[in-house]
Amino acid sequence: MSLDLQAIFIEEATYLLEDLEEAFLELESAPDDMELVARIFRAMHTIKGSGSMCSFPNLSAFTHEFETAFDRVRNGDIKITKELIEIGLDSHGFIGRMVKTLDHVNPSLREESKNILSRLHKYSPKEGADNPGIELDLSAPDEVVSLDWAHYRIRFTPNPGIFKYAIDPITIFKSLAELGEVCNVAYIKDIPDLFEINEFACYMSWEIIISTQDSRDKLVELFEFVEDDCEVNVEMINQENDFDDDYKRLGDILLERGDLTKEQVSQLFEKKPLVGEIIEESGLVPKEKIDSALLEQELVRSDREQKKQIVTNDSIRVSSARLEMQMDLVGELVISLASLHQLAVDRGDVKLNAISEDLEHLVTSIRDNVLGIRMLPIGGTFSKFRRLVRDLSSEQGKQIEMVTYGAETELDKTVIDQLSDPLVHLIRNSLDHGIELPEERAANGKTEKGFITLTAKHSQGHVLIEIKDDGKGIDPDIIWKKSQEKSLTNGDERPSDKEILQYIFAPGFSTAEAITNISGRGVGMDVVKRSIESLRGSIILESVLGEGTTITLQLPLTLAIIEGLLVEVGNESLVIPLAMVVECVETKKSQLESSRKGQLIRVRNSLIPCLPLQNWLGNQTHIPENIQIIIVNIDDEQYGLIVNDVIGQQQIVIKSLGSIYQSIEGVSGATILGDGAVALILDLPQIVKLFQVTEQV
Amino acid sequence: MSQLDNACKLVDSNGVSILTLKGKVKITEATCLKELLIEAVNEGNPIRVDMSELEDIDITMIQLLFSARNKAATFDLEFNIFPISVQTKELLRTSGVLYELFNPNNV
Amino acid sequence: MSETNVELIDKTSVEESEELEESIVQYLTFCLQMHVVGVRLKSVKEVMGVKSITTLPRTPKFVRGVINLRGQIVPVIDLKLKFGMGITDFTVDSCIIIVEVQINDEAMIIGALADSVKDVIELQEENIDPAPKMGAAIDSKFIVGMSMQENDFFTILNTQVLFSIDELMEGADSGTVSASVT
Percent of chain A beyond pLDDT 90? Predict the structure, then answer.
């Protein structure tokens, strides 16, 4: 299991546990509040679900039992009692401890879970008192589930005659290295002079620190053959999971190991603070011993830090609502600044202008900073997928490895949140339809194992996410046939393969044959496309038959602020996302070329269909003779938007239109201009659809 | 004893005693190695141990190496180990002596 | 126990139950042409003068557009258009009444155009008469009741129905847009 996934779960669980505790405490004073019961149920349910996904099976099993009981409360079958709340609070504590041990059930936790569940089962009479209780997987955790690394210190002083038994300590060290991470320090002080040495005697001794998931017994076992004539001492260090910052100081370690006496240590400590140096200088302990003690100290320390990192990730939790508010305020600031700037320009006031420019720098930094807070690495999402791929591929008898690149690529939290579902869908598609069964792959001269590569990277103010598989690819002939069957095509003329592939994104394309229990659920690629577009992103599909499919998503870095081109249409100001603008062309209405599909503009050698935004705005908005045409690129096609005038390029703070009108076609949001007026932000892919001039491919 | 000769060989090259260790140098070669080391130290020239073709060692060899290095230091002789094969380096690390062996301050 | 019960009841009913005790409700009345209508004062956030309204394409005709209310984008509804009384022309008395309504458990801010604001009136619950089944200028589904006290006669609007998603989207343009340049 990846540490990332674990960290995400721990963070989520910590949050849910807080909520759970609060809810239980509130329930105590309002036992009939079904809202609270529902809240508890939800929290438990989420812990269960995430727990099972993030390899906390024991925890998941426990919460399942709890959920069952609370479901009965929720349904009104049983009433909340003092005891039930008591059990709830105990469960809360238990879950917290399970999270801390990373799902490792130690004997005390086992007792605790038995205790809680036996009390809980009184409330689930269906299962009866004879229910053995926990179906926790208690047999295996040491091998399978336990992720706790323990550190052991092994002091090994062989009998000088050990070589006569044909025992070489190196063999033992090699076996140790197979059990975990080993740091070994040899004591060589006793090796005699070359002229006096007995080459068949062993003069060395060792101090080994090993970090392992295996038990102490397993370590001791390795020394079985030498045990009788040698001094072997295996000791666990850092036995308790205490998170104290201070691990035993070096002196204490040496003391604990008997390298120094208490008197010696306290004497030394009176001298100087740098213990390592003092002890070394004093010559009381050979240098290697200090080295090994230092090593031990470092190991424990790094382990603690790692643990801490998992738990806290060195971050504070801020509610996204507060972050939203911060963003709103910055948005207001940008708008106010625009007004100030407008005023300075209108008045021709040089001083005021200078101030407004200074302010602009400041506001830009604040804005970037706040946007930065909202940025999260996409890696968290990636690791969830790795798990998905692993589980689903084995279910289908396929061998698939998922490779990810650019997990550190940062994206706005909102984008990441909304990206998860489309990505799951795309990956499932690759898994289900893309990668072939091992036999099929082998027959086609491919490796039995298929690869799904997930790459994220920055590119020109956008984030590109690529989902690539080396599967069988998509056959354009099949797509063409299906598209014709579903009457998605215009006429019988067969377009290019590349164009045919785009039919996959057409609404209603998803075919029954194509749907399995995995990809299925009736969600087609059109939905994926739409959700990507709602994030102001785009999706490109490329496929080579027999070699694989690559899907590239282009996404904006943030949803909160965009660079926009402000234009005038009729009496209204509209914002066109600058990322889609190719160029602006000044022309006259009479110079447009007419065609069956409407007006076209000739730009260099190509004819581009024109979309008069005035018609979309309605009210019979008049189109003047002198017009500007904004050439935009949408899904690899160019269109010319007819506008009255271009006002200029501007940073646009995106505001929602509110839940009633946010879904109106052609508008993705609104912004507030310097003069306080509202300007709508165009959703270009939708605008194109509305005009229905799309060159039907 | 051709195998033995092959495993440890001492030659003089431009005033440097080069001790070449090859293949396996373990307890069976210990006596030979010890004698060669004493010979090298007595020669009074700088000593270089070539372990580039050394494949396997045991603790006896490591002990002799340390002993010789210490002896060379008392005679004020240069004692270098190079080149060294990857396997040998790994074995020295596993045995917890790599740092000691290559840290000049410890002599 | 009683505390719990109160929490379970949704917000509007709480208000109602509180008001039942007092039995007196305040209404803000305003004019739509010669019709006087009223909404609960509690739901009114503020009354503001008409400012520039940005057209919202492909919404029903009675949606005049959106305004900027201190950074929040608020839709403005022309009640007269909604009730079929013709478009509201702006005069010095014209105003936008900002009301808060619950739509899908979410508090939404909506602006309603009025020709002028009239009064705040206190009413006893029992003095509200049921809406006439027919003959009224306003569709009865938008009416909670009528108040006829001496000279003060007005229609109490049902904002929950009037400002529901269905009503607010009723008659929205859904056709394609012509690409012809005329």
Answer: 8
Cα–Cα distance for residue pair A530/B7, rounded to 1 Å: 73
Report the C-alpha gap between A24 and A38 in whole angstroms.
Answer: 11
pTM above 0.90, yes or no: no
Of A693 and C38, more confident? C38
CB atoms within 10 A of CB B9: 15
SS3 A35: helix
Measured distance CA(A110)–CA(A136) in Å, rounded = 9
pLDDT band at A2 (very low <50, low <70, confident <90, very high): low
HEC per residue, C80-91: HHHCCCCCCCCC
Q: Which two tokens stand for residue A398?
A: 């396929």
Which of A274-278, A328-332, A560-564 has the least mean pLDDT?
A274-278
Query: Which tokens sit at A403?
Result: 């490779």
In the predicted structure, residue B1 carries a pLDDT above the cut 60 = no
This model of the complex carries an ipTM of 0.91
* CA distance readout (Å), A274 to A248, A249, A271, B106: 14, 11, 9, 21
Do C and B touch, counting CB pairs below 8 Å (3 needed)? no
d(C-alpha A313, C-alpha B50), whole Å = 48
Residue A672 forms contact with C (CB below 8 Å): yes
Phi (first) and psi of residue A167, to 5 degrees: -105, 125
Residue of A80, A601, A678, A683 for testing the chain C interface, max C β-carbons within 10 Å: A678
Write down the mean pLDDT value for chain C: 81
Beta bridge partners of A572: A569
- Of all residues in chain B, the one with the smallest CA distance to A164 is B27
Query: What's the pLDDT tens digit per position in A337-358?
Result: 878 888 888 888 888 888 888 8
In this complex, the residue of B38, B59, B64 whose CB is nearest that of residue A202 is: B59
Per-residue pLDDT of B61-73, as tens digits, reads 999 999 999 999 8
Q: CB within 8 A of A572, min separation 6: which ones?
A: A617, A679, A680, C54, C55
Domain B2-106 falls under CATH 3.30.750.24: yes
